[in-house]
Amino acid sequence: MATMKDVAKLANVSTSTVSHVINNDRYVSPAIRSRIEAAIAQLNYTPSALARSLKRQETRTIGMLLTRSNNPFFSEVVQSVERNCYELGYQLILCHTEGDKQRMINNIGTLLQKRIDGLLALCSETHSIPAEIFSSYPSLPMVMMDWTPLSTACDIIRDNSLQGATIAVNYLIAQGYERIACITGPLDNTQAQLRFSGYQQAMQQAGLTIYPDYQAEGNFQFASGYQAMQTLLALPKRPEAVFCCNDAMAIGAYRAINQAGMVVGEDISIIGYDDIELALYLNPPLTTIHQPKDELGQLAVETLLHRIQHKDSESHVLTLTPILTERASVKKLLR
Ligand code: RIB
């Protein structure tokens, strides 16, 4: 494989001149530039990323920890993160954790050995990363997306889940519903707790009864929504509307409702949370709370790159605004 020295020799210039042409970081006369570019083409030379990173003390690589990708919320955010990394000249290395703490620790170690310039975490786990793992990289720039239980200082970007849940339940109440149930996320997760609190607050403020049997705990995954809805439908007096704390569980709930011979938006109303792309294509299309996933991905990358270039700047908590997206899974009651 040709080296920079081979290019310099063929073009009869110094290696530093070749470097200036490759990095375009200093003026080089058109005649010499074209000689060097011709030599690069003739030798099919490709600059060494490793050599460049050693010189620049940066790899232009971002690491990302992700719980799982089978939930469309996460995969849609990752798509936005990777697109923004690419547009800003960075590579993304993605590692899953799937709730396994040791796997998380091992993946962080691997990412650190690859000398990533910064770390993004989009994890719904609740166990935090032990601070000692960063002991040899104390100033590693980090941005936590959505997941907050961290001891080390870092920027945090998250959804305003309390507000979003309140909007969802107030919408059901405004459509005339009183017997409203909640399929929660895993209640050891910060966002899930806040959404359940938003449900409770909205019900209390409207003077409506919160029936204990109407709280069904899920884990943000499809199957838990299916199982929780089966439980709710088996109650002697089933709910007339259900707030599912994410769209994946709402999709599971749809299956249980259909299997019971009932129709969403007719026999029972459902509102979800996240507004994943699939929500529009359900039958009926799902009314839900929109989380700005593209913006979350873009903001996370921009915040991390700012942190990389300004390591000593103070850390921030950025909160995104949830928005009601009204479709057809909630019928207006004429009481
Ligand atoms: O759907 C997955 C959920 O986990 C999302 O609502 C996101 O907020 C994360 O907490």
Feature tags:
335 residues; 42% helix; four-stranded parallel beta sheet; Rossmann fold; elongated; 434 Repressor (Amino-terminal Domain); alpha/beta
How is this structure best described in words?
- With 335 residues, the protein is α/β, with parallel strands linked by helices.
- It folds into 3 domains: 4-47, lambda repressor-like DNA-binding domains (434 Repressor (Amino-terminal Domain)); 60-160 and 293-322, Response regulator (Rossmann fold); 161-290, Response regulator (Rossmann fold), CATH 3.40.50.2300.
- The chain is built from 11 helices and 12 strands.
- The strands form 3 sheets. The chain has a 6-stranded parallel beta sheet, with helices on both faces. Strands 7-6-8-9 form a 4-stranded parallel beta sheet, with helices on both faces.
- Helix 1 (4-11) packs across helix 3 (30-43) and helix 5 crosses helix 11.
- The protein is elongated, with a radius of gyration of 26 Å.
- Bound molecules: alpha-D-ribofuranose.
- Alpha-D-ribofuranose binds at residues 71, 73, 124, 146, 159, 191, 220, 246, 248, 273-274.
- The site of alpha-D-ribofuranose has 11 residues, from loops.
Bound molecules: alpha-D-ribofuranose
Morphology: elongated
Structure annotation, total helices: 11
Give me the count of strands: 12
CATH topology of the largest domain: Rossmann fold
Order of helices and strands: HHHHEHEHEEEHEHEHEHEEHEE
Largest sheet: 6 strands, parallel
CATH homologous superfamily label of the largest domain: Response regulator
Structural class: alpha/beta
- Tally of structural domains: 3
Unreliable segments (pLDDT under 50, ≥5 consecutive)? none
In percent, how much strand structure appears in the residues?
A: 15-25%
Q: How far do the termini sit from each other?
A: 78 Å
Q: If you average the pLDDT, what whole number results?
A: 91
CATH class of the largest domain: Alpha Beta
Organism: Orbus hercynius
Protein name: Ribose operon repressor
InterPro entries: HTH_LacI (IPR000843), LacI/GalR-like_sensor (IPR046335), Lambda_DNA-bd_dom_sf (IPR010982), Peripla_BP_I (IPR028082), PurR_sensor_dom (IPR057343)
Domain HTH lacI-type: 2-56
